[in-house]
């Protein structure tokens, strides 16, 4: 089998179908963990990996990696993705006026939130993307996700799994030391990932959760959301599929809306081709819209780039994604 090139110059930009198919075939993990598997590359995290990751905690410092979940978010309504709507159903005013119906002066507050599961910091589950009608592990997409939800690989299966060694590849700081921000449309290559890891003194290990900071989120906090949700962005090149496969990482997350470079790397119509390769074929869990700013500063000041990472999804039965509040513990 010919291994696809990892140099973006070699891409046939007129033929996304062929480039996607070549990588899907070369790096497919179907059957690797058995026909009944529901976790994909999260299987690379085992008990020994977690014990080793826990040993990285030396200060007890916790950094949240979540964006805010509120109406001032990045979503603009694409495919009915809206920002969270938070509504109070009981308030202090109700308590003061004694109209809640409780005895002996007790009062309380309650609230409800309505939101798409992938409107802010989140994981893409294995039922989120299909390749020519196939879901993860070669199942038919229509047998996996129906109007009742993801009947096979729902995000709930990962609820007690996503705790491992996290590593930050601060590509923005590495490639653009003056601004610490990659420009929109920059395609991060496998060579970029390797050179950043080497500069940070890191070895990417099996079962790691890799966090890639591009700096785009920092730009939105300074200049406004703009086209953040779906617009141009730095991100991973489709040519990194081989790197994502051979490193045997458990999951990967970025500070961008779509994980991969946008616009995508083809002159012909294409939409999120790297998603199409790695979610249904590799079984890779992808995180998007993570806030990596404080973590980047902490890691740079301490000259350490690995930590214990806990990023459990909500166990929403049958969901194909989940909001999260991932935390790095140093």
TrEMBL record:
Q: Where is this region: Disordered?
A: 74-99
**Where would you find the membrane-spanning parts of this chain?**
none
Give one Pfam family: Cyclase
| Gene3D superfamilies membership | Putative cyclase
- Which PANTHER family does this one have? CYCLASE (PTHR34861:SF10), PTHR34861
- Kindly provide the name given to this protein in its UniProt entry: Cyclase family protein
What species was this sequence derived from? Microbacterium sediminicola
């Amino acid at each position: 089998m010919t291994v696809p090139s990892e140099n973006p110059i070699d891409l046939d930009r007129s033929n996304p179908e062929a480039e996607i198919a070549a990588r899907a075939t070369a790096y497919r993990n179907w059957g690797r963990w058995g026909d009944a598997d529901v976790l994909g590359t999260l299987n690379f995290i085992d008990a020994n990996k977690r014990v080793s990751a826990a040993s990285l905690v030396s200060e007890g410092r916790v950094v949240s990696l979540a964006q805010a979940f509120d109406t001032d978010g990045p979503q603009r309504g694409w495919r009915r993705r809206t920002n969270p709507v938070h509504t109070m159903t009981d308030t202090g005013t109700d308590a003061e006026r004694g109209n809640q119906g409780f005895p002996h002066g007790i009062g309380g507050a309650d609230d409800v939130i309505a939101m798409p599961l992938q409107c802010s910091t989140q994981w893409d589950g294995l039922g989120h993307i299909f390749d020519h009608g196939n879901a993860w592990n070669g199942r038919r997409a229509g047998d996996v996700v129906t109007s009742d939800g993801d009947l096979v690989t729902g995000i709930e299966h990962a609820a007690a799994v996503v705790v491992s060694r996290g590593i930050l590849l601060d590509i923005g700081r590495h490639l653009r030391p003056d601004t610490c921000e990659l420009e929109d449309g920059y395609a991060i290559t496998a060579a970029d990932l390797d050179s950043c890891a080497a500069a940070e003194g890191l070895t990417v290990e099996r079962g790691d959760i890799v966090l890639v900071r591009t700096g785009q989120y920092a730009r939105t906090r300074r200049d406004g959301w703009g086209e953040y949700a779906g617009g141009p962005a730095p991100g991973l090149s489709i040519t990194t599929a081989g790197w994502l496969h051979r490193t045997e990482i458990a999951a990967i997350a970025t500070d961008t809306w779509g994980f991969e470079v946008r616009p995508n790397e083809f002159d012909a119509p294409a939409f999120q081709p790297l998603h199409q390769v790695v979610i249904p074929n590799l079984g890779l869990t992808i995180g998007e819209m993570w806030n990596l700013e404080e973590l980047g500063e902490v890691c740079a000041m301490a000259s350490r780039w690995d930590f214990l990472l806990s990023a459990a999804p909500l166990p929403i039965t049958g969901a194909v994604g989940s909001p999260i509040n991932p935390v790095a513990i140093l």
